[in-house]
Amino acid sequence: MSTADAPPLAGPGDPAVRAAAQLVRDLPPSPALWCDGLRKRYGRRTAVDGVSLSVGRGEVVGLLGPNGAGKTTVIKMLLGLVRPDCGEVMVLGRPGSDPAARAGVGYLPELFRYQPWLTAAEVLGLHVRLAGADIPRDEQHGCLELVGLAARADDRVGGFSKGMQQRLGLAVALVARPELVVLDEPTSALDPLGRADVRDVVLSLRGRGVAVLLNSHLIGEVERVCDRVVVLDRGRVAASGTLAELLGRREVRLHLTALGADGQARLAAAGPVEREGEWFTVGLSAEDDGTTVPDLVRDLVALGARVHAVEPARISLEERLLGILRAGAGDRS
Amino acid sequence: MTTRTVLTVAGLTLREAARRRVVWALLALTVVLLALSAWGFSKLVGLDTELGTMTSGEARLVASLLLNLIMFGLSLIAAIGTAFLAGPTLAGELESGQALVILARPVRRSSVLLGKWLGLVAFGGGYVVLAGLAQILVVAATVGYWPPAPATGLALLAAETVVLLTLALLLSSVVSTMASGIVAVGLFGATWVAGVVGGIGGALGNDGVESVGTVSRILLPTDGLWRGAMSAFQDPIALVQMGPGEGGFPFLSEATLSPAYLAWAAVWIAMVWALTALSFSRRDV
């Protein structure tokens, strides 16, 4: 086709072009991180088997699972450090195979070392240049201040303790104004104070709309800061969802005496029951509208049971995680 | 993005050489070598031998022989220095987790590799050229000998260093840190010995033995480039005086390099570099 036959190019003032541009602007932003069907084998061992997950913009997602579940391998595949055998990765709206996709990513690896012959400030400067960002020196120093290393800015990294290296790693992950921060065991070498600092950093990132993928063994930490949790077990996603979804099952503990067979049947009708002497724990369904417990107590009293105590109980993420992992182990055996 | 990465990594590599005291160790070693050679060369003039005082022609012959010997020493220092610097560059950084934080940035692995390679080339090549030039000046000042083509000779010495460090980089992307340095220096030495063996074969008129040198010079161009450098440093009359039967002498070279061989050396470097880039880009870190 010659150029003479081509339809005239639409200019920027064309209403159709303006409408299309508006349409694109109004599209929801792509997830900060998205992967589908990631697989990785090392020799005969399958490390990651069909993992799909996504982290929305400004969302904090926790990655949980036992040792060897494939969490670090998944993170490395998301960041292009390990080649997946199959599967797709998108980082901040670009394919993961494109290095430019990582321009807005800050990463704190689990096991790492910085050039021991550089000072802390020089390490930050190096990473700012590699990220192609233009960050003023004051702001770089601010990052060191944030992790409590301002006084050590001009000391060589070779003399840093493991905990200080981890603090520096956090500063490096934050220095280039990331839109997505991936933290792999960020608190493994930190004292309780350092852990609290990391928690504050993650919460302030969420406040600024920065997405965070947090891999941590410390379930309490994950429970406090994460919007959503993905549980990996043996290379697969064993469970995922918001904390409310995962922890949806609530429990009520009752101290009862003079409980007859009718009363026991009434308890069982409310939910799964566990008994320890005179204490009964009843699991409540997620759809409970708040009437189950009062109705149960009324009926028990009517059936002649004596009610000494009624305590609400919430399953912790730890118990839920153990439940998921044990159920997975049970399925396999 | 690519140019910035290459320059940043090249600068980092040079800074590492400076901070790790490699530069100072090499400088001290070189100064010692230069001082010793200056002392030796100054004794050479008017040396009394059993045959009487050396003529100026004899002194020039010995001077060009010794110059080549010392240049070999310098190229050996540069070879070992860069091979042991290039080894930790890839393998060591992959092992220690230094690569992890760099490669997670928006950088192409080939750009990181090119930056490292350029930094090492600047360091190794720069060292050989500067130390070699200093040695030539020492010889000129003490015995008044000026080699026929010093610039060509120094360039070929630098090229030899580049060949070796490219090999060390390839090795360090596939085997461990220490192994890569040892294997690279070992291959360098083996090729040199094979070249000497080939030279002896040539002098004896044994084609089979001579081909040992030729084949090794093609497989690893360090020895071929070294022989080209020698022929650029030595007094052209020296070889005539030694006679054709002495062609196997390891510190005199018979002929200058052919352009075809130089082109092959360039192709060799490009091929080995491309292999390294391929292996590095596929590697899980």
TrEMBL record, chain A:
Keywords: ATP-binding, Nucleotide-binding, Transport. Signal peptide: none annotated. One of its GO terms (molecular function) is ATP binding. Residues 33-259 form the ABC transporter domain. InterPro entries: AAA+_ATPase, ABC_transporter-like_ATP-bd, ABC_transporter-like_CS, P-loop_NTPase. Belongs to the ABC transporter superfamily. This is ABC-2 type transport system ATP-binding protein.
From TrEMBL, chain B:
It comes from the Bacteria. Keywords: Membrane, Transmembrane, Transmembrane helix. The chain crosses the membrane at residues 22-41, 61-86, 117-146, 152-175, 182-204, 261-280. The keyword Transmembrane applies. GO terms for cellular component: plasma membrane. The keyword Translocase does not apply. It holds the Pfam family ABC2_membrane_2. One of its GO terms (molecular function) is ABC-type transporter activity. PANTHER family: ABC TRANSPORTER PERMEASE, SLL1107 PROTEIN. This is ABC-type transport system involved in multi-copper enzyme maturation, permease component.
